[in-house]
Amino acid sequence: PMTLIPILSMLFIIGAVALDSKIDATKDGLGYLTISIVRCSLFSYIWLHQKLVREHEDALKMEQRVQVMLTQIRPHFLYNSLTVIQDLCRTNPEQAENATIQFAKYLRGNMDALQTSTPIPFIDELEHTKEYLTLEQMRFEDKLTVRYDIQCDTFSLPPLTLEPIAENAVRHGVRGNSDGRGEVAIATREYPDRYEVTVTDTGPGFDPEKLPKDPERSHIGLQNVRERLTQMCGGTLNIASVPGEGTCVTITIPKGANAP
User: Rounded mean pLDDT of 5-30?
Assistant: First the structure.
């Protein structure tokens, strides 16, 4: 609607000129043309102001997306992955090559998220998450088991939604066990009104009402994920955890909220 203001302004001015040519406006000292110019100037100011506000909001959204990406790329993960690749170069060059490919794909996935302001197909987010988990499996070998039970994938969700949850499952779940061993399971289910994605770990669990105060043990980016789920597709994120049993994070995407 704001794009119509310049057109309407021109029509008002043309109409005012036509009226002034038929009506003697000098007796009142104020013609239709003058009134129209004042009104059009006011409308134009409002239009330009709204345009600047929208541009500022877009710039803020882009900055937020940059921050989201930066929070997901953990320096410790980059360092550890490169260390694994370095070791494999000496012991298993073929696997080192595969690790390098996975690492490059992982980084590209994070970079691509900067260019995306709409939900993406779940299958793309799952592939990005698999790249991360593959690198972690190369690092921890048989200490980390990953299982997939994908019953449906024809829905969309915000980029960088599943991967940070999987990262938390590995870092605070599996690695939180005394022996550093455990399992991460990713599953999807379709219901009449929604899709659900669950990420479950066999870690030590925690009391949701007594979240750790140590920032290093906080659930990285989950609040950010929750907010983007709500804003971009009306979704929700819920955490269920029992001390000594593990944690399950559930993403719910209502049907009709978006399309792949």
Answer: 60
Token pair, residue 102, equals 């996975």
pLDDT at 10: 64
Strand partners, 190: 195
Residue 218 has pLDDT above 50, yes or no: no
Task: Please give the DSSP secondary-structure letter assigned to residue 210.
Answer: S
- Is the pLDDT assigned to residue 183 strictly greater than 50? yes
203 and 172 Cβ atoms separated by less than 8 Å: yes
**Quick check: helix, strand or coil at residue 226?**
helix
Task: Take residue 148 and report the two structure tokens written for it.
Answer: 């997939």
Query: pLDDT (tens digit, 9 = 90+) per residue, 142-175?
Result: 999 999 999 999 999 988 899 989 988 998 889 8
Contact 126, 162 (CB under 8 A): yes
Please give the distance of CA 3 from its chain centroid, rounded to a whole number.
30
DSSP 65-131: HHHHHHHHS-HHHHHHHHHHHHHHHHH-HHHHHHHHHHHHHHHHHHHHHHT--S-EEHHHHHHHHHH
182-190 sheet: strands from edge to edge: 144-150, 182-190, 194-201, 246-254, 236-242
Phi, psi of 212 (to 5 degrees): -60, 140
